[in-house]
């Protein structure tokens, strides 16, 4: 998914904004008053939820956003405006309406209870008109429109139909995360993204047993370009001319809150960047897999999707060869997420088993292994004009294709000191032949480790053997 890196499509999100309120605590006893757990509250947080989780994901991915919704004139509305401060938004106010707030009590990473405070009635016709007036002028400045429907009254039947029609007139795609049993108001959208249960309710067909039939009914009845049905751990099903299931694997599932929002955001981002539907579905799959591995309504970055794709060993070596600028940004994000960075370096000419075992040992001691690779000119200065045997790109590609190597960075200097200054690794790994020698970068890394080589395994040995056979 490297092709989505550093993209910034213009996306409009219309839908039901909410505040996701979290009470974080621990539980060690049961109440003597009733058979319920006693949770000691340790911290409290508030983030955007509902359509807000869609926009948070899009912002993290790099999109430029316009947000359209309706809120009340209550205290929660003030919190909503503060949470939306970084976005370009059009928040329309309806007097007496409750701004949606969902409070979740979390103990030891498990959700204990949720309580909601919100309005669910449709917004007024006057507000529909105001939204449409704004929308008709704003749509020319966006690449795609996402509708995040939580059934709280913003996406009324009339408003939804008008939004889709105006988009079609302006040659813009509309993607919908639907709600309810009647999907008729979404007719003419580019695609919708119900889960299997929602699709079953909307079509009257058991999507678990007859997936193709349910998807075909959605597409035909609603005149969609594609019907998309999310299948939880089984992936995503796409029906255009035929049914195709894009599988995925979530390594760990902590919380499925907001996974559907992540799918909508990822689809919208990818399609707005011009990616084809199959690649967009794959991207959405990976993004959802990352999201469910986090607690709460989590956001997912492009770098996290690339890293996840790499962990499945489905990305090419090219995607793991980074420049100094790229690795600086990647490391910053990795450290924010608490990852332990391991660094080593070398020429790695004529890659052999000794190299691989050495790299495996290095990776065992951290989360992310970055390899600094001497450029061709650097190798010549160190080892002579007849080296390297393989070019720097060939050497980098082979290293980057190894499962244990996360990233490779080519450096031009004789030593990787400038690169180490950028990375500031937690652990610097070198060969055991550096015992009692000065190790470049040891003053920067938090710790240094020496790794024994396999006897008889070296590039020089291989080269000498080849030369001997040629004599």
Task: Please describe the structure with a list of short key phrases separated by commas or semicolons.
UDP-N-acetylmuramoyl-L-alanine:D-glutamate ligase, 471 residues, Rossmann fold, alpha/beta, six-stranded parallel β-sheet, 15 helices, nine-stranded mixed β-sheet, 19 strands
Placed side by side, the strands forming the largest sheet appear as 5-4-1-8-9-10-11-12-13
- Helix percentage range: 25-40%
Domains counted in the coordinates: how many? 2
Largest sheet: 9 strands, mixed
Net shape: elongated
Q: What is the C-level CATH assignment of the largest domain?
A: Alpha Beta
How many beta-strand runs?
Answer: 19
Ends distance: 48 Å
Proportion of residues in β-strands = 25-35%
CATH-level-2 architecture of the largest domain: 3-Layer(aba) Sandwich
Average pLDDT:
89
Provide structural commentary.
This protein is α/β, with parallel strands linked by helices and 471 residues long. It has helices at residues 51-61, 75-83, 125-138, 157-169, 196-203, 211-222, 259-272, 277-291, 302-311, 324-336, 353-363, 376-383, 392-400, 417-423, 459-470; strands at residues 10-15, 17-30, 37-50, 64-71, 88-93, 101-107, 110-117, 144-148, 173-177, 191-192, 226-230, 236-239, 243-246, 321-322, 341-346, 368-374, 407-411, 427-431, 447-451. The protein has two domains: 2-311, Ribokinase (UDP-N-acetylmuramoyl-L-alanine:D-glutamate ligase, 3-Layer(aba) Sandwich), CATH 3.40.1190; 318-470, HUPs (Rossmann fold). It is elongated and about 85 Å long. It starts with 9 loop residues before the first strand and ends with a helix. The model has no long low-confidence stretch (mean pLDDT 89).
């Amino acid at each position: 998914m490297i092709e989505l890196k550093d993209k910034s499509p213009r996306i409009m999100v219309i839908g039901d904004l909410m505040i996701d309120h979290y009470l974080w605590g621990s539980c060690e006893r049961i109440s003597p008053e009733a058979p319920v757990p006693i949770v000691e509250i340790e911290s409290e947080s508030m983030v955007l939820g509902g359509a807000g989780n869609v926009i948070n994901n899009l912002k993290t991915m790099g999109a430029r956003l316009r947000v359209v919704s309706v809120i009340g004139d209550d205290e929660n509305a003030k919190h909503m405006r503060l949470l939306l401060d970084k976005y370009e938004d059009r928040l329309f106010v309806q007097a007496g309406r409750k701004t949606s707030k969902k409070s979740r009590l979390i103990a030891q990473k498990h959700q204990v209870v949720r309580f909601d405070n919100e309005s669910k009635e449709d917004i007024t016709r006057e507000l529909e008109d105001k939204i449409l007036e704004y929308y008709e002028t704003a749509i020319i400045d966006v690449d795609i429109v996402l509708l995040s429907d939580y059934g709280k009254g913003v996406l009324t039947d009339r408003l939804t139909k008008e939004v889709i029609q105006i988009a079609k007139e302006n040659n813009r795609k509309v993607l919908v995360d639907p709600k309810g049993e009647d999907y008729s108001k979404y007719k003419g959208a580019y695609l919708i993204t119900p889960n299997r249960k929602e699709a079953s309710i909307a079509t009257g067909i058991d999507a678990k047993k007859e997936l193709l039939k349910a998807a075909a009914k959605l597409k035909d009845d609603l005149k969609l370009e594609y019907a998309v049905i999310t299948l939880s751990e089984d992936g995503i099903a796409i029906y255009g001319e035929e049914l195709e299931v894009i599988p995925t694997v979530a390594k760990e599932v902590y919380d499925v809150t907001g996974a559907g929002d992540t799918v909508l955001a990822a689809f919208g981002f990818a399609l707005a960047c011009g990616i084809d539907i199959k690649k967009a579905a794959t991207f959405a799959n990976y993004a959802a897999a990352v999201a469910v591995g986090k607690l709460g309504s989590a956001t997912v970055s492009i770098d996290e999707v690339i890293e996840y794709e790499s962990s499945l060993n489905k990305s090419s070596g090219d995607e793991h060869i980074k420049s100094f600028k790229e690795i600086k940004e990647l490391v910053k994000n990795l450290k924010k997420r608490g990852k332990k960075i391991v660094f080593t370096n070398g020429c790695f000419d004529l890659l052999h088993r000794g190299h691989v075992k050495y790299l495996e040992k290095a990776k065992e001691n951290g989360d992310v292994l970055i390899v600094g690779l001497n450029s061709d000119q650097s190798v010549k200065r160190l080892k002579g004009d007849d080296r390297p045997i393989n070019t720097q790109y060939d050497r980098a590609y082979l290293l980057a294709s190894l499962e244990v190597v996360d990233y490779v960075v080519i450096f031009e200097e004789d030593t990787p000191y400038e690169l180490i200054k950028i990375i500031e690794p937690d652990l610097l790994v070198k060969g055991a032949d550096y015992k009692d020698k000065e190790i470049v970068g040891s003053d920067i890394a938090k710790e240094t480790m020496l790794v024994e080589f396999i006897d008889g395994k070296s590039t020089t040995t291989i080269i000498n053997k080849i030369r001997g056979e040629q004599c």
